[in-house]
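Contributing: when you submit paired examples, paste them exactly as shown. First protein:
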Amino acid sequence: MPSYASSSSNPTALTTSQDRLVLDNLIRRELKVGDPSDPQQVAQALLERYRGDPRAQAITQESRGLPFLQAVAPVATVSTQSAASGAEWQQATDDIESDLRSLTADAILKDVKPELHGWAQAIRTALAEGYNAARFALDPRNRDKGFAMRRQLNDYARLARLVGAHTPALVANFRKFAQSLDEAANLLLVIMGEALANIGFGGGRYLPQVAYSELQTRRDAAIYALRNLVGSTQMAYGPEDWPRGLDAYRQLTELLEAQGQNDLRSLLVETELARTMDELVQRSGDNTSDGLRAVGSTALLALERFRRMVKVARRGISPESPALYAYLEALQFFASAFDSAGGFRLMKIARPPILFYGLYGNTGMDDADRRLVELITRRGMLAETLDCHAGSCCTSNRACLVLLDKVLYDLDRAIDLYALGFSDFGATERRASAYGFVIDAVIAAAGPCRTPAATALDQKVIERLEELADDVLRPSIDIATDEGMRTAVRRIRELAARIIAALTAAGLPDTDDVVNRRAALPGGVTGSTDAVTLTRLYAAIVRSDARLRAADVFVEGDGEVEAYVGVIEQELCLQREMETRWDNLVHTMIANCGTIDISLGQLREVVDIATQAVAGEVCREEAPIDLPPALETSFDTFIDNVERTGLGRPNRVAALQKRR
């Protein structure tokens, strides 16, 4: 007798139906067939997919009445050509090996030979991993790894210069070793740029943000979230469970109908949602110039429905539904994968500027590109100057040399940030501007590089550093064309006006000159300003706000202004923490040298001065990751005033358990 039970009450039938739907979607996605149940369409799609396979050719020959087995013609192999930087990379690695052998064999360094062998092992690993990753820089994971290995090589180069500055007998050896490490680190940028240029990237500005496998994962997450929302994969609700997913699904369909967003209801159909995502995923698998530019020009329009769905449904359902928010988050997560990643400026490093017009884009170089090229040029000039000054500085003014080596290291970080940037003065470019404040602190009038000693810097070097800080790292920005700077200027002027009014009402003097610093910023939608003028006003506001709080006067802050300037402050605080953690390592490599503490102290002081110039205060010590208390611990605190450690928890039977 046939069974008339519904499929929802038969778990086996439900599972079979879901498996069949998954298989049909797989056939549609991979074979591009309209009806997976049509054997003719599937057979034709399989022959098209495996057209070059000898077995497919044999099947085609058999269908024509010809012999099934035929000799396959040999395919000519094409030898891969080495990159233009292949010879330079080999030379750089040979130089590093030669420097390592020289340092480890020197009798002066016999006490730190184990440490040097550790250096050699770590550096060789970074070279191998960095080179292998840089060659495939089109993949975002390899590109990120290439930048990580470059930074590790720069760290060892700076450490070598720091140790050499306090080992006068081997200062030239350590600086040559650092120079070799810089060569390899710089070549990683060139190789990554060549990896993009060799595919004919042209003027495209789209780079994949996630790997192809990650796109598949995000696609599946969206499908599973939709099934959970509509209830196709959910077990039957219990007698005491609220059907929040089905309720949100019903409200969402009614909302889209009432708001005239009927086209968005197609995203609630699994086949249509899968087709849209599969088309983008399949197109993203074409890692050629044409494929990347095709994705960059179509993904925005294809994903516009996804973003509209998130905007419309996010606040239109009551009560909130976890299943709905999981679905919307999955849509947004998939759409964000097609936002372009930073790195297209790497081609400006790998290719000469004479090729930029026409061949690598219709617009040539923008202002940020020109600053990047200028930054690279000035960095090389500074490195040569410091190598020339190293011999004399290490006899009487080591602190100045250490500070200038810090500036050289910071310029490498600024180059990395600009290479990963998007806009003229976005978040990454603002991070790079933080090192301009470090340069100001290094060449300050009271610093060790301005002492009257014979080894002090000449005026020409100081002027070059000032130009580097003011013209390249902290350029003048036209607020009419930069929306981020325009918004920051407007909001910080409003915040300054509230601070001025509070100072006047409290009868406090304007000792930080907030009025004049506010007047230095443009008051309309036109004009130009820079990071120096903006941060001077922000620092004055912070100091004035501290005086107002001491007088029990509180002024509401501005989160957007704090976020805009906070990027610069955070970069400086990260540098401050790194300088603090280098103490033990440097003391291990330098024995019985009393001036190393002076140099390390100067490094921390310079970063503190730069941070005060930006944020009006030094970096605060951040607490380690602290987990929230458990529910039982919170109840103990509220009811019995028990501390989180358990101190003070009453034991009402303790008296009964005592023997005396």
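Second protein:
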Amino acid sequence: MDQVIYLLTDGRKEDVLPFVEKACRLAGLACPIHSYGPIIQPDSIDRVLGRIRKEEKVVILFHALEESGLREEVHAFAIKERIPTYDLLSPILTLLMTAGKRELIGSGSGLQGDMDPSSLDHLLAYDFARRFDDGQDPRGIHYADLVLIGISRTMKTPLTLYLASRKFRVVNVPLLPEVTPPAELFRISPKKVVGLTVSPDQLLALRRERLKSLGLPPDSAYASLERIEEELEYADGIMRQIDCPRVDVTGRAVEEIAEIILALREDEDNLG
């Protein structure tokens, strides 16, 4: 099937287009390139994404967006529409900021038209996990297959990454008494949400060990039983309000917990 490249930037498209054109030549890819820029307003990006959504050809999406809101909107769109995408700006910034330590920022650098769909699923799931980890952007909740909620040290991030390896797009949201949960959490089906619980004793040991590894005193409020019980009670109230299933992670390995979560998901699907 024919391919087409879309290039979006909030700067001058003339500054970015030559780079994409050269990459296409090196890859031996001859296809039209539709470039848009400068894109500054959200309604402008929405119009372009609307055109991409109606595109009949296979789309490859490049973007160089400085404004984080626009960048995240494009990223969420690409995940939802299953479009291979590459962020031209973030890898360069990351390289400069980490003094040469590389980190994959885009949704995969392999953009060939014959990309293995299974590989693409993994890339999209891992990239989704990184982008929306620890409640960084509540907009990801709408696009997630699963949403994990719980207080600190309930294995939310390890579970998110493990489930990504199984091709599930997962968002995890921390619950803290001092922070109001995102409204998006109450707008989705409770079947997509899983509450993670843990015994106070295990959590106390985990938090004290965490403080020790950071060189901090283990008797801080963060690792007090009173604080832990307060957080657990608050999380219990949120989970009851959402009416979501729960999984006790006490004494369990990540793989075991993940299997329980997926079994709950399958049961919910079978019940309709």
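If you have annotations for the second protein, write them as plain sentences, like these:
Residues 92 and 102 are 9 Å apart (CA to CA).
The radius of gyration is 21 Å.
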